[in-house]
Amino acid sequence: MHSSPIAALCPAAAETRMPVPYPYPAPQSNPQSYPQPYLRPKGRSGRGLGLSFTLPGDVRSAFIGRTVVAAALEAHGLAPYVWPAMHVVDELVAVTARMSPGRELYVSLRQRDDAVRLLVWDQHPHHADPDLATLCETRRRRALWLLAAVVDDWGGEWGVSEASSPHAGIKSWVVLPR
To answer: Considering only CA atoms, which of 71, 72, 57, 65 is closest in space to residue 90?
Structure first.
């Protein structure tokens, strides 16, 4: 079994599941050699930016999340959001990957009504023990202190909640206004 130098934040996840080795090749050192995503060009009418993708449940996925979010915001003429959104997605992906190691993460980026919304959903299981659930939620919120500072500085909002039925897991979201 693979062991990781980065421990799971959730005590139950640490006991039951260790992360598997990262199944993808390491990021290349030359950004020009990265595959270029297809993104709708700037200036085209529509409802705004809407992007969803799934990442492996590994802290190294934060690099991929940052890269995708920055490229999408730039392509849609939302360059002022790049700096805070990159920090937000980096923190959300890294922390959620540590809450549910080895399980896929869903990332959603939307721009509507003069605001950018980021959501990361992880497959963290519901804890039947209330003390364990409280400990888990406290660890998650404490781990997101940098995200809280960036969002507060930008004048936005953020939160964490359980996913709606029939889905299981936790949704962490951020709204960054213009």
So the answer is: 65
| pLDDT, tens digit, 9 for 90 and up, residues 122-136 | 888 777 888 888 888
- Answer whether the bond into residue 166 is a cis peptide, omega within 30°: yes
Nearest CA to 88 out of 156, 36, 42 is that of 156
Tokens representing residue 121 in the block: 């959903």
Confidence label for 108 from pLDDT (cuts 50, 70 and 90):
very high
Digit-coded pLDDT (tens) for 4-39: 445 566 766 655 444 445 455 555 555 555 455 444
CA distance 95 to 137: 12
* pLDDT, position 18: 46
Structure tokens at 123: 């497959």
CA dist., res. 70 & res. 109, Å (int): 11
Classify residue 72 as exposed, middle or buried by CB count within 10 Å of its CB (0-12, 13-18, 19+). Answer: buried
| Percentage, residues of the chain above pLDDT 70 | 74
Select from 61, 145, 79 the least CA-distant residue to 116. Answer: 79
